[in-house]
């Protein structure tokens, strides 16, 4: 069971969190044999994955836990380790992400007064309202639109060109935040919306779009038509 907990924790850490770069004490090691080399190679792989995510884990404590587990002196039992892990992933990460998103969106609205926040946290700016009388009121309506999706770093995740390649998607098939945004405009409308992670793909992320867990997204959408159901 202890090996299972350790393996699960390492795999999840490598896939979704990172280390505190400044906390690592340096020490010179000599790679004297094959075991040393493969051990170092595995450590490099874990370290590179951790650094890529750039989170707040205490890498000194993480390494100490690995040593303690090898020596049979782990400071937490299985239940305590499982609780700490689940609390971090389901509460601590969410609360920290939410606080960072709220601060980002607050600063955004201060810098551009045209952005407005809804009660859900969706923050949007309407460029063109469109025919609001024909806006969608039914989740089964089909949205005919062009869009662009970016992450907070400004990296483009998905796009349909604004002059062609429009898509048709049922309203219910889109993230909750986009459903809300599209109801704010009618055919011919153009909206820019910051969608908090809880209203986008949440902790699951979206592999097909390259959306990481707990990632806020920026959408620019032109709604060309609505096919009513």
Q: Could you characterize what this model shows?
A:
- The longest helix has about 35 residues.
- This protein folds into two domains: about 70 residues, no CATH class; about 130 residues, Roll (Chitinase A, domain 3).
- The protein is elongated, with a radius of gyration of 23 Å.
- Strands 1, 2, 3, 4, 5, 6 and 7 form a seven-stranded antiparallel sheet that branches.
- It contains five helices and seven strands.
- It is α+β, with helices and mostly antiparallel strands.
Brief write-up:
With 229 residues, this protein is α+β, with helices and mostly antiparallel strands. It has 5 helices and 7 strands, in the order H-H-H-H-E-E-E-E-E-H-E-E.
SSE topology:
Blueprint: H1 2-16, H2 34-53, H3 59-71, H4 78-111, E1 116-117, E2 123-128, E3 142-151, E4 156-159, E5 167-170, H5 176-182, E6 189-195, E7 217-227
Antiparallel strand pairs: 1-2, 2-6, 3-4, 3-5, 3-7, 6-7
């Amino acid at each position: 069971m202890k090996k299972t907990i350790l393996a699960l924790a390492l795999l999840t850490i490598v896939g979704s969190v990172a280390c505190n770069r400044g906390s690592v004490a340096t020490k010179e090691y000599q790679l004297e044999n094959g075991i040393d080399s493969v051990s170092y190679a595995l450590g490099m792989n874990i370290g590179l994955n951790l650094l890529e995510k750039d989170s707040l884990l205490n890498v000194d404590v993480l390494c100490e836990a690995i040593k303690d587990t090898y020596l049979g002196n782990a400071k937490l039992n299985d239940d305590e380790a499982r609780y700490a892990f689940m609390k971090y992933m389901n509460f601590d990460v969410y609360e920290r992400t939410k606080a960072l998103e709220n601060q980002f969106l607050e600063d955004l609205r201060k810098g551009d007064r045209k952005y407005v926040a809804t009660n859900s946290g969706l923050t949007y700016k309407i460029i063109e309202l469109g025919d609001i009388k024909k806006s969608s009121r039914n989740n089964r309506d089909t949205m005919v639109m062009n869009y662009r999706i970016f992450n907070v770093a400004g990296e483009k995740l998905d796009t349909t060109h604004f002059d062609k390649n429009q898509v048709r998607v049922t309203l219910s098939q889109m993230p909750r935040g986009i459903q809300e945004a599209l109801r704010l405009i009618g055919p011919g409308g153009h909206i820019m919306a910051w969608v908090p992670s809880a209203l986008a793909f949440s902790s699951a992320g979206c592999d097909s779009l390259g959306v990481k867990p707990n990632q806020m997204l920026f959408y620019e959408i032109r709604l060309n038509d609505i096919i009513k159901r």
